[in-house]
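Before a colleague's protein record goes any further, I have to sign it off. Alongside the sequence sits a line of tokens, each denoting a local backbone shape. I want your independent view on whether this chain really folds as the tokens say. Where you disagree with what is written, explain briefly why. This is what I was given:
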Amino acid sequence: MITRINRERLYLTLMAILTFIVRLIPSRNFTLAGNDAYIHHDIVMRMVHEGPGIMGHDITSLMGLKAYSYPPLFHLMGYGLYLLFHSELVFFLTCPILGTVTVLVIYKVALEIFEREDVALLSAFLFSMVPSFVTRTSVFIPESMGLLLTSGILYMLVKYIKTVPGYPDIDKFELRGFINLFRGDLSYILGGLTLFIIYVFTHRGWVFLLIALLLLGVTFLTPSFRKRPVEIGLIFLLIGAGVIGFINFAARFQSVPVTILGFPKWMGALQLILGIYGAFMLIRSKNPTHRFLIIWTAAFMIIGTYSFRFRDPYAAIPLSLMAGYAFSEVKDRLYRPDHLKSYFLMKRDITPLLRTGVFAVLLLMPVAQGAAIAYTSVITPTTQQNAAFRWINDKTPADAVFLSKIDDSYPLIGNTHRRDVLLWKTVYEGFMGNPPSLKENTVTRDEVSAIFQSSIPSEVHYLIERNNISYIYLSKATHMNGIGLQVPVDPHFKTCFVSGDVSVYKYIKKPELKSNYSEIAVNGEYGKVVEYIEKFWNGYSYSEVGATAYNDPAEDLEFGNLFKGSYESNAMIAAIYLDMGDSTGNRDLTSRGEYLMEWLSYKQMDNGSFPGGMPPAEYTLTTMQTIYPLMAIRSSKSQEIVDRGLNFVDSQIRGNEINVEPFWKSRALFESEYLQLKTESQVAGMYPSGKQGIVYSVIKKQNSDGSWSSQPYENIEILKGLTLYYLSTNDSRVLDSIKRGSEWLNYHQRPDGSFQGDGEENVYCLAHYADAALVYSVAGDEKSLEKTIAFTEKRGVKNDPTPLKSFLTFIWDMKIIYGEDRAMQLATEIAGT
């Protein structure tokens, strides 16, 4: 038979095992989880490789007494464990073990306070699953060790209070009786002080503990307030001022207001409900530890609306203790004979089963919430981010300084061990003994913010050089404004890595290519065309305008107009201007065309690709679209660009398949049937050599009605590729496919020339209509061709999603259909509408 003591030990053991398992969830893939874990892992590994001497020697910094200093004891522990085991498992197991031990100590604290095994078990169980406590003891951060020390000091404190004369009646501490608080067993005070000394060299959480100690003093003063309200009230004000002073001292603690929903989310829904209920039950208790729990919880939850760090998880400690007391009461009432009397189902009394079921649900609620938070609240790097980190490790100097957004800085430093401007200032300088002041840190934050938001190139260049930045790391969201719009065009930034999620750019202090701000004015037959194109000049190149971006890469490449590089448009302009310059003798046009050639060469990536989309990625199609207009230019620079680009395109061909993006990257985010078909047909059309098998594989996927898709624009772009291929090869099988496809297009074109779906799901570009006209021209459908051209003349380019690219594509297609003169005439008409 299992005795009561053995049963309690069994429950405690099961709770410890469950606590440990839940804390392994964030590291389920054996990757560091959470931002701070990357930093502390990096610091430990720097100590492993460079020695513990990298720590600062200033005592105030070692104790965390300066705003941006970091106590080192946790890192020394990690350093010692790593040297002992030589395994990365140290970073995944240490904190779950610390968290589990903390729960066991909280069990002892609850047992001392309430002197009941069931209350102690339930209190420890509820605290073990507090979501904020779970996350802070699942990942490799100093707070996990700090919370263990907090619970240990709390245990010593409770043991001490129980030895003071007058305990457990708080009224015995009234007025002069308050002195009894200092007459307990000093051995517990010495034990607590020993732990506290360790604490100050471990984590800045000791600030919260000192505030709790001030509240303990308030607790023992409350009986005196009835007799001397004025004098004791002044003491309360002084203690309150001390609390505020501590908060101001801990100025780095985030002062972000939190919503009411954050309390059940991070303190635990059941813990919050039962904790408040427990406070209500204990409100009349004369036990000073009970009253202390109520005051501690209330104060930290109130301050927690100002700074979540007080709430998460320090307010949860006393809350869980009171919640365990209330949970025990709920359990006792649930199993009382006068509650939930007999309930029969199929002549069997299922009351015991119902009671157990209700109690089991109550137990499962905090487990489910704690496990869910452990699973979902931790962000790990994406496949594209990991690819960027590998590139940085392989291709950048170890002393390179990076610029990135603060949320990107943690995994960047943790995975590459490079410096980041902001985190190096706020973390590393302090750990190494030279913590910046609040003002210095604020200046750095403001300068980083200005770099990301400024639209003035000279300001960005100055601040980058001032902070000795050598590389810029941009995640998806940071491409949408400020520097994210500048790096694709500015010669000061060399594109090094793009993945459609993350981009890395190298800052060039003195680029060989200078900006070209000269204006171009052309009269005569090309005047209107040049005038329209020049509207898109940004001082470095030509770029689209507008602010549309699509989550689907296929739609983004089709309709998106945020990517300022627009390399394919600049290549078309270079070819057009050089041709115009030759025919008119206008040196300004020739000079601009030659400049664009230099700019394209400068912006071409090392592997020969030209990225596209927003955020950018290395697409085979955008590379081919960029080098295609340059194939007709007879110059060494154009040939150099073309050769490098074709080498990249060739590397993306495997048999009868052309990859959408580089093979070494994940294809999951970018692959789509349309984007695959468009890439294969248009790359083969622009670069037909040896592509017959690829073209035939596209034709095989054509439906019996002549379509590949229900969207007209998708069929237009696939057919355009086949059209270009036919113009180069005269392949009759391809012509047959084009004719069947043109019939489908004609059927889905309205009498006014617009296509079905235009303006409903998407606003089609002028480029789609120009490409459709090209298809009709090759298919021999003159009637549809004339209808489409008439619609383009009426529609114009003014409200086009991608006006520059559409205008240039229109010129290019019209040249194929009608020749140079007629194309320019139509382009002149289009530019004015």
In short: Confidence is low (pLDDT under 50) at residues 666-670. Residues 597-831 form a domain with the Glycosyltransferase fold (CATH 1.50.10.20). The longest strand covers residues 493-498.
